[in-house]
Amino acid sequence: MILKEVAIFPYYKQTFVSSYTQEQILERLREFTKEEGKESNPVRREFNGKIDTDGFQISRMITQANTFLPVIKGKIEGTKTGSILFITCEMFYTTKILLFIWTVIPLLIFLLTLLFVQGYFYPLLALFFGLFNYIVSVANFHRQRKISMQILDKILS
Prior knowledge:
alpha+beta; 6 strands
């Protein structure tokens, strides 16, 4: 039996083909990334994160809190004519937990009120709240992902 991965939490995968070598891509990323645990002073601070020899894990630098900011994970493979970047954007772990809690609790309330309360107003209200929260969270994640990916695309172009 083959189980397919069910995407409960939003994520995004993209592949970039670049004429830059793996080392050039890593150097470009270091110019714009404040690396964790290092006293680096990038020219323009666009990202926070960690850059390794074959990949990176970064998130956009912001001045105000934003729960739906994506973590951008990238793996770089060198080719004869440049590099291939395999990029995945996903939610931070704590954001996933909060999204799960604030989606599951209304669904549980929906089920319990459906069983124990006469009428459909309160069960439907709980269901609506859970679905609304999930839809708004996914939409905001993709909005922030698009902004982050545009900045990353400018850096790597």
